[in-house]
């Protein structure tokens, strides 16, 4: 099987609608995929119906942002959860509201630098006001303040830059808990991007289930490093392209680049089944 457990749609910061993403997945000859939009499950219903019609398997997923020790932000992927009857939907709604508050703070910082952008311009790029830094980066590029979205992050929006605003309202422990309470598995997303392996022991102590060894930006050396780390820590392995609808510095240009090995996916399925059984 060809498996990609990390993709995004217009429900968060992707460029393709849920239906268009499913078509891209099919064109990439994938068998199993997950939509892991930031702080929302909005795309899953539409994508599930289309995927089923095409004979594809969709694993429910989500990507949560959370703070580690109030020092820096990490991303956690949730898989195989059942949101019905859990606090996950309410938790995600609160996160989307926090995104709007964060946007206003970033816009205020940009205004102090002489860059005036209205919130409505940025929100128009986002579905259901699930707004993030990539939406602001696109508007900055469209308005000519920067030449492209990568420059927007490099100059203004990346951690440590003048318009960066963290969201310290959720800890990694809370994010893992809410995934577990919905019966899901929690995986650390793209560890090679943030390069903060020092946080992993705390995440394991909080119940982390897996680590994303395979990612669109990970080198072969990073894949080997995180596979070894997962084995030492007793973690499962996840992986995917982080496809957003087009190529980018932090994600792959197409679904399935890379794919998760089938053996790793089988171990994830087995762990998810055990967790589901324990909840019954």
Structural features, described:
- With 280 residues, this protein is an alpha/beta fold.
- The protein has a single domain (3-92, 167-279), classed as TIM Barrel (Alpha-Beta Barrel), CATH 3.20.20.140.
- The chain is 43% helix and 16% strand.
- It is built from eleven helices and seven strands.
- It has helices spanning 18-27, 44-53, 88-112, 119-123, 133-142, 149-157, 172-181, 191-194, 200-205, 220-233, 262-279; strands spanning 3-7, 32-35, 57-68, 72-79, 185-188, 210-215, 236-240.
- The chain has a seven-stranded mixed beta sheet.
- α1 (18-27) runs parallel beside α2 and α5 (133-142) packs across α6 (149-157).
- The protein is globular and about 55 Å long.
- The protein starts with a strand and ends with a helix.
- The mean pLDDT is 94.
Enter the CATH topology name.
TIM Barrel
Shape descriptor: globular
Rounded Rg: 18 Å
Report the span from N to C terminus. Answer: 30 Å
How would a crystallographer describe the biggest sheet? 7 strands, mixed
Q: Helix proportion of residues, in percent?
A: 40-55%
In terms of DSSP E residues, the strand content is: 15-25%
| Mean pLDDT across every amino acid position | 94
> pLDDT under 50 segments (min length 5)?
none
* Total domain units: 1
Spell out the helices and strands N to C: EHEHEEHHHHHEHHEHEH
């Amino acid at each position: 099987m060809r498996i990609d457990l990390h993709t995004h749609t217009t429900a968060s910061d992707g460029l393709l609608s849920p239906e268009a993403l499913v078509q891209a997945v099919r064109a990439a000859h994938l068998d199993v995929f997950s939509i892991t939009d930031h702080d929302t499950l909005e795309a899953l219903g539409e994508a599930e119906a289309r995927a089923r019609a095409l004979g594809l398997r969709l694993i429910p997923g989500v990507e949560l942002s959370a703070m580690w020790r109030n020092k820096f932000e990490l991303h956690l992927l949730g898989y195989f959860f059942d949101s019905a009857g859990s606090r996950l939907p309410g938790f995600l709604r609160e996160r989307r509201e926090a995104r709007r508050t964060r946007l206003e703070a970033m816009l205020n910082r940009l205004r102090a630098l002489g860059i005036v952008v209205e919130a409505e311009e940025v929100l128009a790029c986002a579905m259901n006001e699930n707004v993030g830094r990539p939406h602001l980066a696109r508007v900055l590029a469209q308005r000519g303040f920067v030449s492209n979205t990568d420059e927007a992050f490099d100059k203004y929006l990346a951690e440590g830059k003048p318009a960066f605003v963290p969201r310290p309202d959720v800890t990694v422990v809370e994010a893992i808990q809410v995934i577990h309470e919905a019966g899901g598995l929690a995986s650390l997303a793209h560890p090679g991007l943030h390069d903060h392996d020092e946080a992993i022991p705390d995440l394991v102590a909080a119940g982390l289930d897996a680590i994303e060894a395979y990612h669109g930006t990970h080198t072969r050396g990073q894949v080997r490093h995180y596979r070894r780390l997962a084995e030492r820590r007793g973690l499962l392995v996840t992986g995917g392209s982080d496809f957003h609808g087009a190529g980018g510095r932090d994600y792959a240009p197409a679904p399935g680049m890379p794919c998760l090995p089938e053996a790793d996916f089988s171990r994830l399925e087995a762990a998810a089944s055990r967790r589901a059984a324990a909840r019954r």
